[in-house]
Write a structure and sequence with these properties.
By secondary structure, this protein is mainly β. The chain is 10% helix and 29% strand. Strand 4 and strand 5 (96-104) form a beta hairpin. The chain binds a DNA duplex (13 and 13 nucleotides) through strand 3, strand 4 and helix 3.
Amino acid sequence: MTELSRSFYRGNTVAVARSLIGASFARRYRGAWYLARIVETEAYLGSNDAAAHSRGGRRTARVEPMYADGGHLYVFLVYGMHHCANVVTRRPGMPEAVLIRAGEGPPEAPPALLSGPGRFCAALGITAAATGMDIVDGSDYRLYRRDRRPRIGVSPRIGVDYAAEAKDWPLRFYDRDSRAVSGRPRLRR
DNA sequence: CACATGATCGCCT
DNA sequence: GGCGATCATGTGG
């Protein structure tokens, strides 16, 4: 397992979003590591992206982690009850990030357990306490490079209808062969 | 299967 | 004061 590097995260945000499909997200909780295979992501392209929290150069306490160097986490609370986790990309001052929308857990886990950004965070216990964390310096959060290149599907992003023309940009990426991708034939239970 | 709705609260204007 | 980078549940066809 090769850990993803700082220079990787500093690269083109769309390229990072694509490359993270199939990558492993690891989280240490009370000494034990928990892993998930990422199967769905979305790219958020900074100041000029009407769907991004950093649109128009917004720079508030919440969004501040998006302005950090590539390789940090940006976690926020939506709808008062769900958390969404992002991996920050590019360089300091460039507020771009990749939203992790879904993952696969261990085979014995329910298929939909990590299907959706809120569920992904809930399953891995990711809360706002993790925002701003460095994922390259060996903290409790780490990402590992994928070992195989999956078949990748592309679509507009989910839940950003307010974002004018940016709502149609093809910035959502997913593993075409995964059942855990969100917004699919419901895999309840 | 396709909507429709309620929950719930921090953030931003 | 309004509204989300969501989800679970409920209705109707």
